[in-house]
Design brief:
heterotrimer; A alpha/beta (about 425); B mainly alpha (about 290); C mainly alpha (about 270); B: about 290 residues; 14 helices; C: about 270 residues; mainly alpha; 2 domains; about 0% strand
């Protein structure tokens, strides 16, 4: 019997017996992933990757730590354009349209076409699946997802005479409580701000998305061709940011994402709005009693989702695709996701993860981790369109110009909307 | 007595190395011009010739006008300050004051550090509330300043970083020049009753002119060429207030994947640098008459 | 009497200036050696720790990054020494048509350095398939106008008599180059070498866009990749990493301070 027949027969046998067909074909997977500075995170990925490789000795996988999200995407696209993409990568969920436009990824729903696999795809949280779809197909699989939450310093609350178990839930409460939380020294300089919401760059745009959702609107839709920048919700959100600075609840000017957690830990701010991915960092370093709550909302709770999904690249062989899918299943399985979630504070993408003993123990020890999960039903997709980097830059500029006092909200969003429409007009 | 260059030797000595150089200097400059007349290819459609469309977009780009303004301010801000500071440093280090080796070490150290490392150091320094700058300000009872988060301070903050890095290097060039000044010239001036300041202005400064020209050209080139700190610290923000031309080219091309517009901006940059070079040439030629 | 006070005043001020100038760097170093909690709270008696270095070292393949930088610099140095020497030799020792124009064209690179043309240079590399390789990073810098200029100036100071003497002894072009010109230019080679090491160790933008993988990433890009985060920046770690990546240069500088300064001066004078 020649080789082809052997393979075909084995595949048939494998399919009949429920054994995965990849058992007969070897693949070398290159896997790009982004991580932050957290040392255990890189190690955990490596450990997980090695475990899968050990379980699947016919395959090999090379995990490439490429940098932060932006860089990993650039690197993956560059490699793809040069004809040598990784087989699988964790990239931002919002990169979907860019990757589709460049024609470098395949719809995973086409690959995961067996009934079990479709059930598997259904088993992810809806909140995280919203941004994986385009044109009726599923192009990515959630992996390290996050949503921002409201971290607050319970000791600071007590000091200000506020109930440490009742963080603010609405914008009005945020301002009221924030005013009480802001502390000054004898010179009149602020030593502790009421809250700190990053407003600069992409981090600022992310949190801004949450503000907009809490006012009942979204920033973009699943067509990838619509940017809803000039809406009453966005103007209200910008005005809220202005009010926070005007009422001296928050520092004026642009606030950067990167040093916000440190500022919180140092007591420079009594609360901060940042990713649930910072849970581990805060937990390790906080020297005060702290809690986590929903992001205070305008008309109700609202948050964006963010983080990274698995994508499988187009220029791959069938073996590589099967192996990649198998790899993804492993990495998103209850056990792996539990360990990853515990190492980083990212929200596990599947409900079954929370059933594991590991996660139950973790949730008991660190109940703050559950807040992100509870907030999920109120979360909407992050801002994403075709030409995402360019269009998001318009949004970022609008936000930055308002918080630095260069423009007023209505003008800022009108300008951004005009520019966005010009770019997206090509796609409609 | 120079000999004629034989072809074979000429090939090895000149053609190979110079082709390599041209491949990454002249060829890409021309290529940029060509590419700027085409639009971007995508998976849906190949690129097509669009003539001057990209240039029209460029003229209508108001982010670009902000970027050009920033680049101009940045050049005007860093070059004279770096020169002035480095002359001062060179004078100090060249003097008979105690501890000049310490001064020289301290001033020159930033030059040895990569700009990305310098950027990280200063990012930390500038961090509002937690950075050293804020700690110092608060010990004087002053509020912390959001250096990188305000449109009016971000560009200046970048300039400070650049000057901090460069001045030490220029100091070295001035040191060399100072040490090359014959002592008798200064003595002669002093004998005529000139004070230290007079000696400096009338004797030393003119002799430093060649160095100043060299340093100024270097500083100007660096003002366009080095944007590492923008990438690491502000990413051009807030609201493009700290974006420089090369950073904008980097962002447009590699972040927004707009290679066609990137090529257009590259042409603009080459033209600007060419004009600056011509300007310097013209200025130098005029000054040469007085040498 | 007032002159002495003047001296003391200026001396103190200048030492203070030197101290202030060095402050950002010194504080960064201090933070690297102390636990995270002191990064924003300077305290004299804070405990010293080396943990930051261990953690930073283990979080990213810095050894690999160093190796890459080392390989990169070696390639660039060798190529430059050879190629710039050849070109300078041609310009100095021979006459040929278009020498003036050619020289002017070469000098253009002083102004239009490879980073300016980053878009097209990247596309060129990508077309020849050398992105994400160390040789790809080195390629635009293998011949440098600065080196050609420097060596030409130096070769021009070589006495013609030596050249002629060697020719009389039957030396061909290559022998003359090797036995007459190169030895006399040795201090310039050293100076130029140091300038190049400094430049390429510090080069960032071009290697950033050329490289994708840790296997070829030099230390500057590695540092930046390490320091850009999704979660909060851990300053003591980042400062430790920064110090680690610059330590070799700093140590070399402190030991060979005088030579470094002298050589940079020499390169500048030319």
């Amino acid at each position: 019997m020649n080789w082809k027949n052997t393979t075909a027969l084995s595949a048939l046998a494998g399919g009949l017996l429920g054994v995965h067909a990849t058992a007969v074909s070897a693949a070398e997977l290159e896997f790009y992933f982004p991580v932050g500075v957290n040392a255990p995170a890189v190690e955990t990925i490596q450990t997980l990757t090695d475990e899968w490789a050990a379980q699947n000795p016919q395959h090999s996988v090379k995990a490439v730590y490429a940098g932060n999200y932006e860089e990993t995407t650039t690197k993956a696209l560059t490699a793809a354009n040069a004809g040598d993409p990784p087989a699988v990568a964790v990239l931002l969920a919002i990169d979907l349209f860019t990757l589709i436009e460049e024609g470098v990824i395949i719809p995973i729903s086409d690959l995961a076409d067996s009934p079990e696999e479709q059930a598997w795809l259904d088993g992810f949280y809806d909140g995280f699946m919203n941004d994986t779809k385009f044109d009726g197909k599923i192009y990515s699989v959630p992996f390290q997802r996050s949503t921002p939450v409201f971290y607050y310093n319970k000791d600071a609350f007590r000091e200000a005479g506020l109930d440490p178990e009742n963080p603010p839930e609405t914008w009005d409460e945020m301002i009221e409580m924030g005013k009480q939380l802001t502390k000054r020294d004898d010179n009149g300089n602020v030593t502790q701000w009421g809250t700190r919401i990053p407003t600069l760059g992409l981090g600022g745009a992310w949190l801004f998305g949450g503000l907009v959702v809490s006012k009942g609107d979204v920033l973009s839709t699943e067509t990838g061709m619509e940017a809803r920048i000039d809406t009453p919700a966005t103007i209200a959100s910008l005005e809220f940011l202005q009010e926070l600075a005007a009422e001296e609840v928050m520092a004026p000017g642009g606030i950067s994402w990167g040093d916000t957690p440190k500022a919180f830990l140092e007591g420079q701010t009594a609360s901060m709005w940042t990713s649930t991915g910072n849970l581990a960092f805060v937990n390790e370093n906080a020297e005060f009693d702290w809690g986590v709550g929903f992001l205070p909302g305008g008309d109700g709770p609202g948050a964006p989702v963010g983080g990274g999904n698995f994508y499988i690249f187009e220029e791959t062989t069938d073996e590589e695709r099967e192996a990649a899918l198998d790899f993804i299943k492993f990495m998103t399985s209850a056990d792996s996701a539990a360990r990853w979630s515990m190492a980083t504070g990212y929200v596990a993408p599947r409900p079954d993860t929370w059933e594991t003993d590991m996660m139950k123990a973790y949730a008991e020890e660190l109940p703050q981790a559950l807040v992100a999960l509870d907030q999920l039903p109120y979360a909407e997709r992050e801002f994403a369109t075709f030409q995402r980097a360019k269009v998001t830059q318009y949004l970022v500029e609008a936000i930055e110009s308002v918080v630095t006092g260069s423009q007023d909200p209505a003008a800022a969003v009108a300008e951004a909307q005009e520019k966005a429409d010009e770019v997206l007009g090509d796609y409609r | 007595m120079n000999k004629r260059l034989p072809i074979g030797l000429g090939f090895i000595l000149l053609v190979i190395p110079c082709s390599l150089l041209a491949a990454f200097t002249h060829y890409p400059a021309v290529k940029a011009l060509v590419n700027s007349m085409w639009n971007n290819a995508s998976s849906f459609r190949p690129s097509k010739f669009v003539g001057f469309e990209n240039y029209e977009a460029m003229l209508a780009d108001d982010r670009l006008s902000q970027v050009l303004l920033n680049s101009t301010l940045y050049a005007i801000g860093t070059v004279p300050l770096a020169i002035g500071l480095s002359i001062g440093m060179a004078l100090l280090v060249n003097s008979k004051l105690p501890g000049t080796w310490l001064m020289r070490l301290s001033f020159f150290m930033p030059t040895m550090l990569p700009l990305v490392a310098v950027a990280n150091i200063w990012l930390f320094f500038y961090a509002p509330g937690i950075g050293l700058a804020s700690q110092i300000l608060s010990s004087f009872g002053l509020p912390s300043i959001n250096f990188l988060g305000r449109t009016d301070t971000s560009l200046v903050s970048m300039m400070v970083v650049a000057i901090w890095k460069e001045a030490g290097l220029f100091m070295i060039f001035y040191l060399a020049a100072l040490q090359g000044i014959p002592a008798n010239l200064k003595d002669a001036a002093r004998l005529e009753g000139a004070g230290s300041v007079r000696v400096f202005i009338d004797v030393v400064m003119p002799l430093l002119r060649p160095t100043t020209i060299f340093v100024a050209v270097n500083a100007l080139i660096n003002a366009f060429r080095l944007v590492d700190h923008i990438i690491v610290m502000t990413r051009g923000g807030p609201n493009n207030s700290s974006a420089l031309l090369l950073y904008y080219i980097y962002e447009v091309t590699f972040a927004h994947r707009d290679f066609a517009y990137g090529a257009t901006l590259t042409v603009l940059m080459v033209v600007i640098l060419g004009l600056l070079a011509a300007l310097q040439f013209w200025v130098l030629n005029r000054k040469a008459h007085y040498q | 009497m007032s002159r002495d006070i003047n001296r003391i005043l200026i001396g103190t001020l200048s030492l203070v200036l030197a101290g202030v100038w060095g402050l950002p760097f010194l504080y960064s170093v201090w933070t690297a050696f102390h636990p995270e909690r002191y990064a924003a709270n300077f305290q004299w008696n804070a405990p010293i720790t080396f943990d930051n270095f261990f953690e930073a070292w283990n979080s990213a393949p810095f050894a690999l990054y160093f190796m890459n930088t080392f390989i990169l610099i070696t390639i660039v140095l060798i190529a430059n020494f050879i190629l710039c020497t050849l070109v300078a030799y041609a310009f100095v020792r021979y006459r040929f048509r278009w020498a003036g124009i050619l020289f002017a064209l070469v000098m253009v690179q002083l102004l239009i350095s490879p980073e300016i043309l980053i878009v097209e240079n990247y596309l060129t590399l990508s077309q020849i398939g050398l992105t994400d390789t160390i040789i790809g990073i080195a390629l635009p810098y293998l011949t440098s106008a600065f080196g050609i200029f420097l060596l030409r100036q130096t070769f021009m100071t070589v006495p013609k008599s030596l050249d002629e003497a060697a020719q009389i002894e039957g030396a061909g072009a290559w022998r003359v180059l090797w036995t007459v010109y190169v030895p006399l230019a040795r201090p310039i080679y050293l100076a130029y070498g140091l300038v190049m090491v400094s430049f390429h160790w510090n080069n960032f933008l071009w290697p950033l866009i050329v490289t994708n993988s840790p296997e070829v990433r030099p230390v500057t890009v590695g540092l930046s990749v390490f320091a850009t985060v999704e979660s909060g920046i851990e300053w003591s770690l980042v400062n430790a990493a920064t110090l680690m990546t610059t330590a070799p240069l700093i140590i070399a500088f402190i030991i060979f301070q005088r030579q470094f300064v002298a050589n940079f001066m020499r390169a500048g004078i030319k």
